[in-house]
Amino acid sequence: MKKDIILAGVGGQGLLSIAAVIGEAALKSGLLIKQAEVHGMAQRGGVVQSHVRLSDKPIYSDLIKAGSADLILATEPLEALRYLTFLKEGGMVVANSVPFKNVDPYPGEEEIRARFETLPHHLLIDAIAIAKEAGSALCANMVVLGAGSPFVGIPDDALCAAIKQVFSGKDKKIIETNLKGFSLGREASLDATGTN
Amino acid sequence: MTTKLLLGDEALAQGALDAGLSGAYAYPGTPSTEITEYIQRSVRAENLDVHCRWSTNEKVALEEAIGMSYAGKRAMVSMKHVGLNVAADPFINAAIAGANGGLLVSVADDPSMHSSQNEQDSRLYTDLALVPCLEPSNQQEAYDAPAYAFDLSEQMNIPVLIRLTTRLAHSRSVVKLGQTRGKNKLAPPRDRNQYILLPTNARGSYLDLIARQPQLLAESEHSPFNRYEDGPDKTRGIIASGIGYNYVQEVYNGACTHPLLKISQYPIPVKQVQRLFAECEEVILFEEGYPYIEAKIRGLLGDRDATIRGRLDGTITRTGELNPDIVARALALPQSDGLTNPSILVPRPPALCPGCPHADTYRALNAAMDRFPQGRVFSDIGCYTLGALPPHEAIDTCIEMGASITMAKGASDAGLAPAVAVIGDSTFTHSGMTGLLDCVAEDAHVTIIILDNLTVAMTGGQESNATNRLAAICSGLGVSKEHIKTIIPLPKHHDENVRIIGEEIAYEGTSVIIAVRECVQTLRRHARKGGAK
Lengths: 196, 533
Ligand SMILES: Cc1ncc(C[n+]2csc(CCOP(=O)(O)OP(=O)(O)O)c2C)c(N)n1
Ligand code: SF4
Fold this sequence. Notes:
The structure holds two protein chains of two kinds.
Chain A: E1 2-10, H1 15-28, E2 32-38, E3 47-55, E4 69-74, H2 77-81, E5 87-96, H3 109-117, E6 122-125, H4 127-134, H5 140-148, H6 156-166, H7 172-193
Parallel strand pairs in A: 1-4, 4-5, 5-6
Antiparallel strand pairs in A: 1-3, 2-3
Helix pairs in contact in A: 1-6, 4-5, 4-7, 5-7
Chain B: E1 3-7, H1 8-18, E2 21-26, H2 33-41, H3 43-47, H4 58-70, E3 74-80, H5 81-86, H6 88-97, E4 103-109, H7 123-129, E5 133-134, H8 139-156, E6 160-165, H9 166-169, E7 171-176, H10 199-211, H11 213-221, E8 227-229, E9 236-241, H12 244-251, E10 260-263, E11 265-266, H13 270-279, E12 282-286, H14 292-298, E13 308-309, H15 324-330, H16 357-369, E14 376-378, H17 403-413, E15 419-424, H18 425-442, E16 446-452, H19 470-477, E17 484-487, H20 494-506, E18 511-516, H21 520-529
Parallel strand pairs in B: 2-3, 3-4, 4-6, 5-6, 9-10, 9-12, 12-13, 14-15, 15-16, 16-18, 17-18
Antiparallel strand pairs in B: 1-7, 5-11, 8-10
Helix pairs in contact in B: 1-2, 1-8, 4-6, 12-15, 16-20, 17-18, 18-19
Bound molecules: thiamine diphosphate and iron/sulfur cluster.
């Protein structure tokens, strides 16, 4: 088993929580892991990115090689496209479709969609709408993780257990909302990609 | 056996805690901050009563650590690479005095300047100080390094530098924890002259430091951190230091066909380097940072038989961090390029958060400066440096921490008026106070705006030693009471703030305006912690 995953998003979108959940789940599943993260200069609104590498054999590099990522998982559509050089042939891109427009000019949404359409394996979901359905827009990151979960290479119950672990300091309600977000994201993904 | 998923920074911190650490000293700075934050969260540190409060700057942090080492206990100081410039004086002189309790100086370098103004390589400081250095190549070695380095420090009576780089500092992996040991007992040095570096003492100590160099080299030659891995294909030998070793392993999938010398302890193990050159037709070097080993091997006369490949002959880019693609390309291994990025990509430059107090101060400052088109604004390092970018474009300089007030004074000395300095609260106590004293001593025409957001925001919201002390510090340094003004940077106070700033700029002496409003990020965090709705 070996998975190279690029996580991409904007500061404040909870990308590092996604990384923490995958890391925790991998650890519990007996996998080896390397997870490198870059925090933007600013606290909010800058680019945030993480390389997550999972394997049952030793992993050497903390960084993923160009053209070798199995999955790009993004909380923002433009950010997903920023790392296409890392995607391997046949790799999957899963992204939240709702743009975070803190730059002007921000590319047209049509252009972004068009670029996604050229990718053989991709999935755009409205993670904000699904998160609201789960109880709070704040769990959009877990919706994205849920949508990407069929491609992460870790069983979903291990990911759910990891969500409970990572958010264990929080309110019970917050944990439930996050779990709900995860499972709604996962369902949307299974429906759309027909992986089930 | 206990395992943990840890950042390189955290692994180093856990390693130090398990190795009998008594005091952690630090000033925050990316990518080193998580070392101390981990110790501050650690239950073990709390149970063992390990000192771990932030210091006011790197120099005082290192001196505090030297004091703890003097008392016989194990101490570690952590900082980012440029912090070692600030702490260079104690660093180099501590090496002459020696170490009583183990003394570790952990420095995180930032090649590629992800969040720094330069990519200086801390290994060069070991040449000045004549101290050994460990450069872990992975998280496990980052964990193992402190125990080994504390012993080395105590046995060889010398501080030890531990060098991390961004990718290791900020990457997580599973680490196996080892044995724990207790803290040292209080035991100040018996020789009461050891730490008195009067020239008569220092000359002897310096000779003694030089006399220990061969033994430090011998430690390196036999170090578990250095390894000569033989390979059948001698057309090329590889030297890989620190995290560079991982990239070589990655591109050969753990089965490098060439002899490979891994270096993670310095001084450079000369015998192993000689062996590699004796056995291989050419040697290629992968170093994260400056071509430090490479330059030493080339020496003054260079590579006369053209057998050295690295950053200095253009085989590898001269600047920036390594990655597996750069390493594969230099080794002429097959690579995949991936897809091309779309042309519609736009950069997403960092910006001040919505509601940031600095933004309101800059709006008021810009409005006040409209009257003084010949004026300049000397700024400093922190979130507020983002005031250089649109929409504010409010500042003219940012060199290094503390250079705002002092540069404004120098420019004012030259006749530039008005000269305004803008400095954050933590930067002010880090290295702004001394410059203010210079201004006061000459009543220089400098207007200083201290941006007091009650925290060290840039590095993630650490406590600031300046909080609630700024007005008293300025008045204590001799700024006259009438020219210490406090403003609250909020849109509703805009007109008043413009007026106050304008008046103080027009005043032809030293004045200080303290703009006080909490950072919105820490405010939110405090509200959450306090359970406020
Ligand atoms: C010598 C040195 N040490 C540490 C840093 C890292 N660093 C950058 S800005 C900063 C402090 C900023 O705090 P403050 O002045 O209060 O400004 P704020 O970010 O809160 O606006 C630190 C610690 C650095 N750049 N140089
Ligand atoms: S973190 Fe605080 S100080 Fe920094 S930009 Fe955001 S609000 Fe301003």
